[in-house]
What does this fold into?
Amino acid sequence: MSAVLLGERIGRPSLAPALYFRMLLIGYFEGIDSERGIAWRVADSIALRDFLDYSLADTTPDHSTISRNRRLIDLQTHQEVFTWVLRILAKEGLLKGETLGIDATTLEANAALRSIVRRDTGESYQDFLTRLAQASGIATPTREDLARLDRQRPKKGSNEDWQHPQDPDSRITKMKDGRTHLAHKAEHAVDMETGAVVAVTVQPADRGDTVSIEETVEEVMGTLADVLEDEEAAENLGEELLSEIVADKGYHSNAVLTERQALGIRTYISEPRRGRRNWRGKAAERHATYANRRRIRGERGKRLLRSRGELLERGFAHCYDTGGMRRVHLRGRQNISKRLLVQVAGFNLGLVLRRALGVGTPRGLQGARFLFLFDHLAHLGTSISALLPIWWSGIRNSLRSSVDNSLLSMPSQEPRFA
It folds into this structure.
């Protein structure tokens, strides 16, 4: 049966919700950043057509169909898909939920910095500079005049004054490579025992870590509560959920440490050098800071802080660098959250596949043997085996390139005659 919804098709094929989420998973596993690229890849690949239950005669969905389904399916449904994957991880013993590491990264927005406008008047940046130049005595300012005037202005990129008209949720910020862009902030909460991402939130890029951690911790609590509703998954979770938090020095503040201590959560947060501090009238803050300092100086604290960078940066690399989401192609925090939830769900599924197959990404199948996959089929459940066509496509491409390289490396032989 075709993969379209039952009913009449008018103009273009419709997408069932399950197929919509499968197509987003294809985007993660093959590192395709845009919905347009996902639609093109599905139309081009026979293996992916079979994975989505499309025949060669069927018309596959285009990018506008994917976009329409994203707008129709609410954020809560995407969150339920993410939670469903976490339940699979819990049943496989890959989720404990006791010690969580938290860190954030920036995603370049789908918005040009030169297109920003003032929040109060809607005036463009170019018109604003021209007006300033004319007020300073330059009747017809050139581009060089505007550039020189712009360099002399302090705090010229304030998010309080400027926004992008098509993506008001994006914020002006400095990226890790030193460039200034409009961006969003993605924050992960990772299980320090298994590397599974327990929660992901999209927040303004100019929001500090000490503020954004509150929303992420709240999201972790809600997600773990949803996982506990499954009895089989709850049996494999840890006894003390969300009992410890590990983070870098950007999250260190009196408020963060005090509030975590009030909730009974032990913190392992690196402490920046602030010199001698005055604790007069701050007994609770002093107690929380000294307790955190004592923990990070212990052997367990040092071990957790060493593994924090490895586990958290690995998730960022898979989800955003090789996963193709370092620069988003969507606008609006809600749309980006929908894509990121499925993106991170694909990363979590990769942990299950890595345990079953030994590799968690199609790129890891390079050089794999022909019978590598079939030796592990008996250990896979039906929900995970649905992703095997993507892996099979990777195996087929690996084998094809290996055979081509072998043929090219063979020495040529002269024909022999009797």
Q: What stands out?
A: The chain has 15 helices and eight strands. The longest strand covers residues 180-191. The CA atoms of residues 25 and 404 lie 29 Å apart. The radius of gyration is 26 Å.
